[in-house]
Design brief:
18 helices; 65% helix; alpha/beta; 572 residues
Amino acid sequence: MLRQSVAGQRRHIATGAALAVGHQAGEALVPVLIGVVIDQAVSDGTATALLGWLLLLAAVFTGLSVSFRFALRAGERAAEQAAHELRRRLATRVLDPRGGAETGRLAGALVTIATGDARRVGTVNTVIPAGVGALAGLLVSAVALLRVSVPLGLLVLLGTPPLLYLAHLLGRPLERRSGVEQERAAHASGIATDLVAGLRVLKGLGAENAAVARYRRTSRDSLAATLRAARAEAWHDGAILALNGAFIALVALVGGRLAARGDISVGELVSAVGLAQFLLTPLSMISWVGGELAQGRASAARVASVLAAPPAVATPGGTGDPGAAGGTGANRSGAARPTPVRGRLRLRGVTHGPLRGVDLDVAPGELVGVVTTDPAAAGALLECLAREADPEAGTVELDGAPLTGLHPAEIRAAILPAAHDADLFEGTLIENVTAAATGPADHVEHALHAAAADEVARALPHGAHTPITERGRSLSGGQRQRVALARALAADPPVLLVHDPTTAVDAVTEARVADRLREIRRGRTTVLLTTSPALLAVADRVLVLDGGTVTTEGRHTDLVRRHAAYRAAVLA
């Protein structure tokens, strides 16, 4: 797929370049033909000869129009294909089950890279044919001027390379400032995305002014970087225009002196002046190409930094290519996932963040509750069990196979983490719930009922087909949690990890969810990381993590009666 896309882009670039060469060569020939008309047809006074040359000019202009139109079309098509391919590869890398692309980057920054930067890199496929055509125009002009006068031709041939080198030097500041501009714009976009996502929380805390001030500072930094890049572009374009004008004036001056001495004819002088004026087009085009390439290089570096980001977890047998086309783009070598997945989990000596030498066993089909006195320990345990990160020490096993020996994609198919802050997507309620569902329709109905999300649907204007906004902001916190839980249950994974799924749900609904959760997950391994008494009461057993390690286990009622730390964590 990738090879076909690259081959297609190359084909369109080659076609565009060939047509651009024809267009620029034809443009350069126009003043030459006009000079010939003046010297031969007009001087001889033959109407037939004049008509013939005029018809030739008309044919040249027709060719110019056709070649320009199709050259632009081929370049634009290559640019759009390249931008699309980059966006696809960036999305593949961001969604890679090994993670890592989002490390140190805000979501808004990734969006900016996948849109603005990908577009700028794709534009390079448009400017390359234009640059090739401009160089062809310069070459044809030089050859034509050599036929008119050797000094004029040498002036163009020897003067163009230094001019191009100066244009390259003038493009360096623009490249640097363009990179900073895109970086600041991406950061501002990321900050804005975060503020919008947390607007309700900010209003609840009364922190709107602080948030606005933060965004104002970020926006001003972005504006300053944009203005610096604009000034650099203005200086670049102005300096290039001045250099081009001086060069063209020099060509015209030399041609005029040659005509004054009688070394060239009147028609040749007209051709020389016309060619000197025409040179402004390819020279300006080359300066534009230089500016676009400078900005494209800056954007390409940002795209490459995402595509080359190291995975958060290693792939057995090699890291593979995180940004490669097709599937996750990762190497799937290593041990095969146990089939069928029974769901036995085993941790030995796991140390990760606040976890210290955790030993834990979960039998197939068991419903286990895990209570942590440190909330950060629950997040760390979820990361290790779902292999969103590898522990600093110790092993995590699924049915006897170490997770480090399995490809993350295989793990994702067997173990589903339902995070506390899981987001909903723009679409209908039922589309959110069935996003990962693979079972029959009646299982989706059971999942909705188990999570009490059917009650949410009944409260909405169009039931389960009611559209909800991005991240479910049109729903209350408790409604969002129930829909997110229904989505996880509808996926029906062999192992389900649930982190605090009912913190925003009322006690009566929470009790119903707890009973239904046990029923729908019967025979499937489920780990509940929660401090909810209602959920813990339906667990087969509960493990207590205190001080980063498992200190005790038992039934919920027994632990409430005899374990002070457990009572403090659960009943406080």
